């Protein structure tokens, strides 16, 4: 199909976004064409603003608008409890639980030899420096249960073991409300291995 050049460019740019295929890009582009001008301007301004104003927190590497993110500025957080995550979106998922009261360290990805990402490409050195201050008593590894996430967690545990800090990993298993007969074998194994006494 032939579209006006600006529309074709918008569709092509939208397709570059993760999770957006050709049909979704087309729907979004047509939506934006029909949307009121002020709505489109607000969206464009929000995109510009996030690129101009959002930086990495100097301490944990979460998204921040200032030198420190709101979590690192919060004096009520337990600085002895450090949760290591791959990306800021993982941190945000944990924060939505309103249960964790420690601080975080964002690695900036996971070890992935297939993609050419080794430990030297992640914020491992900064993590070790944080542990060496002596303030952290426990590190909780919260990487996804994938080959890359598990490899990253094992590497971090190996890296931190000589530093005398307790290292734990979040448990994985059955979702709340899930049925055993619908769970796959790997999930059931994780649930059994992550069991705890009642």
Structural summary, described in words:
This protein is of the alpha/beta class and 198 residues long. It has two domains: 5-53, Helicase, Ruva Protein, domain 3 (Orthogonal Bundle); 76-172, Dna Topoisomerase Vi A Subunit, Chain: A, domain 2. 43% of the residues lie in helices and 13% in strands. It has helices at 5-15, 22-34, 37-53, 70-73, 88-95, 124-132, 147-160, 185-193, and strands spanning 55-56, 63-64, 78-85, 102-106, 138-141, 166-169. Strands 4-3-5-6 form a four-stranded parallel sheet. The chain has a two-stranded antiparallel sheet with strand order 1-2. 17% of the residues are buried. The model has no long low-confidence stretch (mean pLDDT 92).
Radius of gyration using CA atoms only: 21 Å
CATH architecture assignment of the largest domain: 3-Layer(aba) Sandwich
Count of domains:
2
CATH class annotation of the largest domain: Alpha Beta
Percent helix range: 40-55%
Rough outline: globular
- Oligomeric form of this entry? single chain
- Overall pLDDT score: 92
Structural class: alpha/beta
String of helices and strands? HHHEEHEHEHEHEH
CATH topology of the largest domain: Dna Topoisomerase Vi A Subunit, Chain: A, domain 2
Unreliable residue runs: none
Distance between the termini: 62 Å
The profile of the biggest β sheet is:
4 strands, parallel
Strand content: 5-15%
The counted number of beta strands is 6
- Total number of helices: 8
- The main sheet orders its strands as 4-3-5-6
């Amino acid at each position: 199909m032939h579209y006006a050049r600006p529309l074709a460019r918008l569709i092509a740019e939208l397709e570059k976004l993760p999770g957006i295929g050709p049909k979704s890009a087309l729907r979004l582009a047509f939506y934006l064409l029909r949307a009121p001008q002020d709505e489109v301007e607000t969206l464009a301004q929000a995109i510009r603003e996030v690129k101009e104003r959002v930086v990495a927190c100097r301490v944990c590497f979460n998204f921040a608008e200032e030198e420190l993110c709101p979590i690192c500025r919060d004096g009520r957080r337990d600085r002895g409890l450090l949760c290591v995550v791959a990306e800021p979106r993982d941190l945000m998922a944990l924060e939505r639980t309103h249960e964790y009261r420690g601080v975080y360290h964002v690695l900036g990805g996971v070890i992935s030899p297939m993609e050419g990402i080794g430990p030297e490409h992640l914020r491992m050195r900064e993590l070790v420096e944080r542990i060496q201050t002596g303030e952290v008593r426990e590190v909780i590894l919260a990487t996804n249960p994938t080959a890359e996430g598990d490899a990253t967690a094992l590497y971090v545990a190996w890296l931190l073991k000589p530093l005398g800090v307790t290292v734990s990993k979040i448990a994985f298993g059955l979702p709340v409300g899930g049925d055993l007969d619908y769970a796959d074998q790997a999930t059931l194994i994780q649930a059994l291995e992550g069991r705890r006494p009642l």
